[in-house]
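Posted in: Protein Modeling Q&A

I'm a second-year student putting together a small comparison for a lab meeting, and my supervisor asked me to include a predicted structure for ChlI component of cobalt chelatase involved in B12 biosynthesis. I've never done this before, so apologies if this is the wrong subforum. The sequence is pasted below exactly as I got it from our records. If anyone can share the structure token output, I'd also love a short note on what stands out.
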Amino acid sequence: MTPPRPQSNQKREGKAASLVPPPSSLMPYSAIVGQAQVRLALELCFVEPSIGGVLLSGERGTGKTTTVRAFARMALERPLVNLPINATEDRVVGGWSIQSLFEDNQPRHQPGLLEDADKGLLYVDEVNLLDDHIVNIILDVTSTGFLAVQREGLDRKVDLRFVLVGTMNPEEGMLRPQLLDRFGLMVTVRAESEVASRVKILEQVLGMEDPHRRAARELEDEAKRKQLHAARAALPKVRLSSERMRECVNVARALQVEGHRGDLVMALAARALAAIEGREVVEVKDVQRVAPLALAHRRKPGAQREAAPWGEVDESLVAKALALVRPAE
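Accepted answer (user: helix_wrangler)
Welcome! Here is the predicted structure, written out as tokens:
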């Protein structure tokens, strides 16, 4: 990695983009309408950070940012860290404080956004517009759990663990396949089309002006937070049998997924789902439920278009691979 240049102690680039509204103006997580797959993906990545983050793909105005901010406040009880698309490598990994060099001629490390996000949530909006090199750095830290910065004989390594969430609008361009594959899970986010659902969204948003209704939702958020933290603590006890492992491989092969990352992510996500539901053994239904999140963006071009939505054909292939249906005679 290229050594970061010194940074000044003035307001750091993109700082304003990291600010979020005060908690009282944020939607409670339990008040979010729909977005079931988005919420599931976020919860799985919280329980098992080794999954490698989640990519949310969808047009503007589909509630991606609202859902992520609500999740960060619920699960982590702290604001998310927002990484702007114009962030430099120094801003991301950190640099040396110029003021300390002038004052006592001693290099002093100034943390970057990755360290700011430790034990929290790193949010990268429009990640498809971010420089590929920066995306690689972020994904490396997410997968390895540590940040390494090297310069002039100095070697700094920091253990980091955070939930990575990236968003993109496919109309503005896709990520390169190599980077797309490195995101653990992916969800295609769509606006609610049913009139009843859209009305319910309005009711929930306007209803949060009522302090009593908001307080009730905050209590639901507290219960969900306890559930997720308990699931994270119980995760090491969750057993994935060799049969479930074989099923993960079979599903990936049925969808013509190249490489092994899809198998691994599906297994990790299935374990996390079992932990969330309070079970110590992964069941076939867990594999089936997480398959779209882990494999939709890894389907082989030609067999399945990468950008094509997950549909009935995919569900049928998964069911057959899991021997949940009998093949047609």
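A couple of things worth pointing out for your meeting: The CA atoms of residues 147 and 158 lie 5 Å apart. The longest helix spans residues 211-234.
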